[in-house]
Request: fold
Amino acid sequence: MADRTFAEAGADLELVGIHKRFPGFTAIEDLDLVIPAGSFFALLGPSGCGKTTTLRLVAGLEQPTAGRILIGGKDVTNVKSFKRPVNTVFQSYALFPHMTVLENVAFGLRRRRIDNPLVKAHEALRLVELDHLASRRPQQLSGGQQQRVALARAIVNRPALLLLDEPLGALDLKLRRQMQSELKTIQDEVGLTFLHVTHDQEEAMTMADTVAVMNKGEIEQMGAPEELYELPKTAFVANFLGQSNLFTGKVTSSSGNSIVVDVAGVKIEVPKDRAQRHTGDVTIGVRPEKLMLTTEAPKPTPGRNVLGPGRVMDVSFSGVSTQYLIAIPGIGPVSVFAQNMVFGPVVHEGAEVWVSWTVDHGFGLVDEPEAAPRFAPDADTAAIATQTRKDLLTEIEEA
Reply:
């Protein structure tokens, strides 16, 4: 490796005040982030949220407009990509077709003139359980096997930080789930710091110790997967990480442990410690799988919220569960996920139903009723033209 001072067990990553602006738009706005050494960290978000730009900044493939990048406490902001203790596994594995699997894995070691490259390559292949295919060419392997070879090639150099850019995106669903488990196992064994960039919610929650949900260049919420799912703080997190039923209303009363929100004339109770705001107009929610569906009005019970009656608008079978879409007058559509314990749906379209849930399953968001844009778009054509001209002049001078 270019820098042997980094711990073999991985190093922490710190982003301080990172700002990245491209001609015409801002990709990252004032990002601060600390990833502890040896952790499996997932950066989750939709296309265009800035997650891949963040990864490219850490890899040294882009330069930040402002801010610093530290790996293992060392400032690498202005360090060239090939000199950083970082390796990347991309969605496209980029294996050399004319080389064997063993030669592909050993290639980087030989370039760096590391001792015993073939011995170390065999060790890496044994870790991903592919040493028995060391003499094959990439085209003789399945997609999952090629992904493992790419991973072995990345970890054989013992980088302080391993970047994973949608590495499982090209695999089918069954193989992707298998590789999720295997990637986590490999990370536990090698102890490196993994930064995984993905838009797949299940992938992030399955593998990562910590998940950061990114939106419009900023991290909206960060924490353990279970914490983010069970207690989202914003509407974006609530709807991007799974699905949520969200309701807006005014807080009508507040006791020692809970608040009561008036939603279209219905009183809904939410625990205070699960609500971000306790006065005024608020948005509250509950996950679809937390709801119970009944064909008769439930008896009023302390600690339980009830909505209805409503009409079943749609019934969708998805394998492990059936999704019911309920239209409730004054409130709108409500989704219910019911586990398939019996053959066929519990109720059919047009049926009159009620939904209820335990008060402890609700949550309250921090969002204002109408949140202002985070930063104004920069679509000034003059700014774009100026930047393009500057880049062109720089290329001419370098040539």
Summary: The two ends are 31 Å apart (CA to CA).
